[in-house]
């Protein structure tokens, strides 16, 4: 059975011998085999190795050799990250037989910590997009699960993994987290080793974590980045920077949610909020759409010269665009990126974090290709990365988290942005803000209530 509990809750039951890791793993595998054909969250399931890892964890625990809070906890990994013995196709047909010879560094760290790898999760082809069309959002089947880590977001929201790794080049951890009403953490750029992660744009690529609470994000992140300390007491006051101009084109539902969040933080804490200036999203997208395609083309054209012309449209057109960009244009974009990074650094001077919406809209409908923002029609990809891509460019750590409940029980999401390399401090602050906002998404109830509709929707689109 699915438990829809936190990692800490599962760890308590493991420590009390109320359940074994093998039992946790078997129960989740039963649910995965039953529901994954409908949800499409996993691209490959590692039943044999998962059960072996779970049995090894139980043996260690019985002998008093537990490796820490992830020992025996079932998790998932995005299939763009090398994970043995899975097929890690990165959503690309020509890689459908690719089985890596060794684990990516981040997967090795998870396994060394005793985590049980249930399988690898779906991504859109090459991780170029923010839509993972083969994945159904378990909380709202008509809405996107987000991308490119859509499989990881759906697996966590559906209770089919306690946490999952994703990657984030323009928002691809935070966007699925927002669409699936879960939590996502993009660390500071460069803190996590991306060896074994198939690149999209190396200067923007991050490995991140999706889970159902800030505490769970921290548990996983501490394994991936051992320099992160445990939670400590926070000062009685904290300061947040907000730029209403940055999200001026958000839908009214998002603007109203931000008003509610700010009011709640002021009412229930000694939060101080200050107006700050940030680069305009249009300006950021202008250079994001230069350096990302340029780097993506450099990789895919060199590695797969015969395959990339047959990629699906978003991926193929991105590579085509990248091949047309000159080195001079790339260097100009890089200068603009440095200016934007400096502007974010300046906004964080004397501020504990920035607070912004993750998306300008609710999770977009699967059926739409473009979205209206402030009277302007914007392609879905550009709309969904509009508030997220800046922080891939700047390298600052960001947490995406549920902030206000919607009538159907899902949540709208905020981003908290910390100082570069202030990952531990950001996680601590987010933990406090999570308690103050007290948003509880009842994943079990929503998933159960949507199960029939999700099944029927899958049948209709197959």
Key phrases:
Amidase signature (AS) enzymes; eleven-stranded mixed sheet; two-stranded antiparallel ribbon; 13 strands
Write the layout of secondary structure elements.
Elements: H1 7-15, H2 21-39, E1 42-45, H3 47-62, E2 74-78, H4 105-112, E3 116-121, H5 150-157, E4 164-168, H6 174-179, E5 183-186, E6 206-211, H7 214-224, E7 237-242, H8 252-268, E8 270-275, H9 281-303, H10 313-324, H11 327-347, E9 353-357, E10 370-373, E11 376-379, H12 380-384, H13 389-394, E12 398-405, E13 411-417, H14 423-437, H15 443-461
Parallel strand pairs: 2-3, 2-4, 7-8, 7-9
Antiparallel strand pairs: 1-3, 4-6, 5-6, 5-12, 9-13, 10-11, 12-13
Helix pairs in contact: 2-3, 7-14, 9-10, 9-11
What does this structure look like?
This protein is α/β, with parallel strands linked by helices. It has one domain: Amidase signature (AS) domain (Amidase signature (AS) enzymes, Alpha-Beta Complex), CATH 3.90.1300. 42% of the residues lie in helices and 15% in strands. It has 15 helices and 13 strands. It has an 11-stranded mixed beta sheet with strand order 1-3-2-4-6-5-12-13-9-7-8, sandwiched between helices. A two-stranded antiparallel sheet has the order 10-11. Strand 10 and strand 11 form a beta hairpin. Helix 2 runs antiparallel to helix 3. The protein starts with 6 loop residues before the first helix and ends with a helix. The mean pLDDT is 96.
């Amino acid at each position: 059975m699915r438990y829809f509990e936190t990692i800490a809750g599962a760890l308590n039951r493991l420590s009390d011998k109320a359940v074994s890791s093998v039992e946790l793993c078997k129960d989740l595998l039963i649910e995965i085999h039953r529901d994954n054909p409908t949800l499409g969250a996993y691209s490959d399931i590692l039943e044999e190795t998962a059960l072996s890892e779970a049995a090894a964890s139980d043996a260690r625990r019985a002998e008093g050799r537990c490796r820490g809070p992830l020992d025996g906890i079932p998790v998932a990994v995005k299939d763009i990250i090398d994970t043995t013995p899975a097929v890690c196709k990165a959503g690309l047909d020509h890689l459908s037989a690719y089985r890596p010879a060794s684990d990516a560094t981040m997967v090795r760290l998870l396994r060394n910590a005793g985590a049980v790898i249930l399988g690898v999760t779906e991504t859109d082809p090459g991780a170029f997009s923010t839509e993972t069309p083969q994945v159904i959002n378990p909380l709202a089947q008509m809405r996107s699960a987000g991308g490119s880590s859509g499989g990881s977001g759906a697996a966590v929201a559906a209770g089919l993994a306690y946490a999952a790794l994703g990657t984030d080049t323009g928002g691809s951890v935070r966007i699925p987290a927002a669409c699936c009403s879960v939590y996502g953490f993009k660390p500071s750029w460069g803190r996590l080793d991306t060896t074994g992660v198939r690149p999209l744009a190396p200067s923007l690529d991050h490995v991140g974590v999706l889970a159902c609470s800030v505490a769970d994000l921290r548990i996983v992140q501490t394994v991936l980045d051992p320099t992160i300390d445990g939670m400590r007491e926070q000062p009685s006051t904290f300061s947040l920077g907000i730029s209403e101009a940055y999200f001026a084109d958000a839908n009214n539902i998002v603007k109203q949610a931000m008003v509610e969040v700010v009011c709640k933080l002021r009412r229930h804490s000694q939060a101080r909020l200050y107006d700050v200036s940030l680069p305009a999203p249009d300006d950021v997208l202008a250079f994001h759409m230069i350096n990302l395609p340029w780097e993506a083309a450099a990789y895919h054209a060199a590695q797969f010269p015969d395959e990339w012309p047959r990629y699906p449209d978003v991926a193929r057109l991105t590579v085509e665009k990248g091949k047309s960009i000159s080195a001079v244009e790339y260097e100009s974009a890089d200068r603009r990126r440095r200016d934007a990074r400096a502007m974010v650094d300046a906004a964080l001077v004397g501020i504990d974090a920035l607070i912004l919406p993750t998306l300008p809209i609710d999770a977009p409908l699967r059926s739409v290709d473009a979205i209206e923002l402030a009277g302007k029609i914007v392609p879905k990809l550009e709309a969904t990365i509009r508030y997220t891509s800046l922080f891939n460019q700047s390298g600052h750590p960001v947490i995406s988290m549920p902030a206000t409940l919607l009538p159907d029980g899902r949540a709208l999401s905020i981003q908290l942005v910390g100082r570069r390399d202030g990952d531990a401090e950001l996680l601590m602050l987010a933990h406090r803000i999570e308690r103050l906002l007290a948003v509880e998404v009842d994943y079990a109830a929503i998933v159960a209530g949507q199960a029939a509709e999700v099944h029927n929707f899958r049948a209709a689109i197959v």
